[in-house]
Write a structure and sequence with these properties.
- The chain has 384 residues and is α+β, with helices and mostly antiparallel strands.
- The protein has two domains: 231 residues, phage-related protein like fold (Alpha-Beta Complex); 76 residues, M1 Pyruvate Kinase, Domain 3 (Beta Barrel), CATH 2.40.33.10.
- The chain is 16% helix and 28% strand.
- It contains six helices and 18 strands.
- A hairpin with a 5-residue loop joins strand 16 and strand 17.
- The longest helix is centred in the middle third of the chain and has 23 residues.
- The chain starts with 34 loop residues before the first helix and ends in a 5-residue tail after the last strand.
- 22% of the residues are buried.
Length: 384
């Protein structure tokens, strides 16, 4: 082509020989990361029914509480009622939480205990209604008969599977035409819909709930899984609760309080703290008062990726799908997201009724959350 004298930045009908300058990279701005699913990883097995179940058990309790409003002489009372008399046996040493006095149980009738006060030379202290009673252990008589057998009942827990679907449809023309930034329009649409389904799966694993009636689903009721947050009840703490550290902002005192309570209530090993963006910045601020820099430092670092306390080392996971007023503390070894056997995300081609190709992305998953007392949740934190 001869010299035209026209500048190359001139475009339009007069320069049909100039090609469009379009990058071959298609950028996606919508968030689709699944950090919690990435941390939990793939399960070792699949669910084999729409109602996935597992067994849980616990040891015989070694604590109870006094349930007696008729106590007349707190420092001399030798009989009082407890909430669960079947937890005690004759020969148990007991101690009220926070006190030094030891007592020895000499008789148990229903929920009424008879005890020896000032046992082992300890000094009498006040017995109060509602006080926690710790059972130290039982002393058997030499040559005595075997005690009555006691045991716990295993419980069956479960969750339902939820079906996640997205349709894909591409015209014959789109399939035949050359596309900028991709080789196959159908494959590209599959990838986009899969990203959306994975995003929705993580959101549901955290926040989802199941219907109160007909949770198994029907032709009119959609079957949904119960997420982590709705599962948690034992270690559920809110700003303003009695005993919970004061203040609405997240701080180390609140994190350590919940970690200690979980440690006291279970043998769970919390190793993951899940937060949204605002609370993650609060965790980063834990170190702001002690962070130092040299004169040669040119990078400002303000990130906490793990938190280590007396109750273990916890990695910090930031996910967009976590409620901004909440902090979730998990033992990740007891949390799994399972596909229905043969129903992990896959593409199912469907019959075409015209000049197009179509199909459906399908996946069916459930959440297995074992021993909910091994996890914890803080709600009501400040978000501004």
């Amino acid at each position: 082509m001869g010299f035209s004298g026209k500048a190359t930045y001139v475009s339009g009908a007069n320069l049909p020989e100039l090609a469009e300058d379009v990058s071959d990279v298609i950028s996606i701005v919508s968030p689709f990361e699944t950090p919690l699913l990435d941390v939990l990883g793939d399960p070792l097995r699949a669910a084999t029914s729409t109602h996935h179940e597992w067994l849980e058990d616990e040891l015989l309790p070694n604590k109870d509480s006094i349930n007696d409003t008729t106590i007349a002489e707190p420092d001399a009372e030798t009989q009082f009622d407890v909430a669960n008399g079947d937890r005690f046996r004759v020969g148990d040493q007991i101690q009220l939480e926070g006190l030094k006095e030891l007592m020895l149980v000499t008789n148990v009738v229903g929920d009424t205990l008879t005890v020896v006060r000032e046992y082992a030379g300890t000094t009498a202290e006040d017995v109060t209604n509602g006080a926690v009673v710790n059972i130290l252990g039982n002393a058997a008589l030499e040559g005595g008969d075997k005690p009555e057998a006691r045991f716990t009942n295993r419980s069956r827990c479960g969750n339902y599977t939820q079906i996640f679907t997205a349709a894909v449809e591409v015209s014959g023309t789109d399939l035949a035409a050359s596309q900028i930034g991709l080789a196959d329009e159908m494959d590209y649409q599959k990838q986009e819909r899969l990203r959306e389904l994975l995003r929705d799966l993580e959101n549901t694993v955290i926040n989802g709930g199941m219907p109160t009636a007909t949770p198994q689903g029907s032709d009119t009721v959609r079957r949904t899984m119960k997420g982590i947050i709705p599962h948690l009840a034992t270690n559920l703490f809110s700003v303003g609760d009695s005993g919970f550290p004061a203040g609405s902002g997240l701080d180390e005192e609140k994190i350590n309080y919940v970690l200690r309570r979980i440690w006291e209530n279970s043998n769970g090993n919390v190793d993951t703290i899940v937060v949204g963006g605002f609370q993650k910045r609060k965790i980063n601020a834990f170190l702001s008062a002690v962070r130092g820099y040299d004169a040669t430092d040119t990078t400002y670092r303000d990130r906490v990726s793990a938190y280590e306390s007396d109750f273990g080392l916890c990695r910090i996971v930031v996910t967009r799908w976590m409620p901004q007023d909440a902090v979730m503390l998990l033992d990740s070894t007891r949390v799994k997201v399972l596909p229905m056997s043969g129903r992990s995300f896959h593409f199912k081609p469907l019959a075409s009724g015209g000049d197009y190709e179509c199909g459906e992305l399908i996946g069916e998953y459930t959440l297995e959350l074992r021993n909910e007392a091994a996890h914890g949740l803080i709600r009501g934190l400040a978000t501004s």
